[in-house]
Design a protein that fits this description.
The model has no long low-confidence stretch (mean pLDDT 88). This protein is an all-alpha fold and 142 residues long. The protein contains four helices and no strands. The protein has one domain.
Length: 142
């Protein structure tokens, strides 16, 4: 019984790691997409084929919102996975992830543990705010 639990535990920890890898790949995708979109806009602007800036800002805001939703989804998924890992560790000789979480103050002190999911969500959130500010400026002043 203990060997089966250990094998399940190993598999589940590996699955949690794969979720983290998928989150990083998703972030790279959105960064590449937004960089390419910005580059295309600048290229069109430079060739005097002026694209509608408001449309590009709206597209950027929508992509940023989708990115933020993905980060939030992965944060929830990882949270659930680690709750299951902590439960499994109660039946193992040593609960390494639970102990690590304890050492890091269970995420309650930024000095001990800075939640990467929260930090990485600032990027698309900031882009959304900038886009909405530009849209508001265009609606009120132009």
């Amino acid at each position: 019984m203990q060997n089966e639990l250990l094998e399940q535990y190993k598999l589940y920890v590996e699955m949690a790691d794969r979720i983290i890898q998928r989150r990083h790949a998703t972030n790279r995708f959105y960064i590449s997409l937004l960089t390419g979109l910005g580059g295309l806009y600048l290229l069109l602007y430079k060739t005097r084929d002026y694209p509608n800036a408001l449309l590009w800002v709206i597209i950027t805001a929508v992509i940023s919102l989708l990115w933020w939703i993905n980060i939030y989804y992965y944060r929830q998924l990882n949270s659930g996975k680690f709750k299951v890992i902590f439960e499994m560790e109660q039946h193992l000789p040593f609960a390494c992830y639970d102990r690590e979480w304890e050492i890091l103050g269970r995420g309650k002190h930024n000095r001990l543990y800075l939640n990467l999911s929260k930090v990485e969500s600032y990027i698309p959130f900031t882009l959304i705010i900038l886009c909405l500010t530009y849209i508001g400026y265009r609606m009120w002043f132009i």
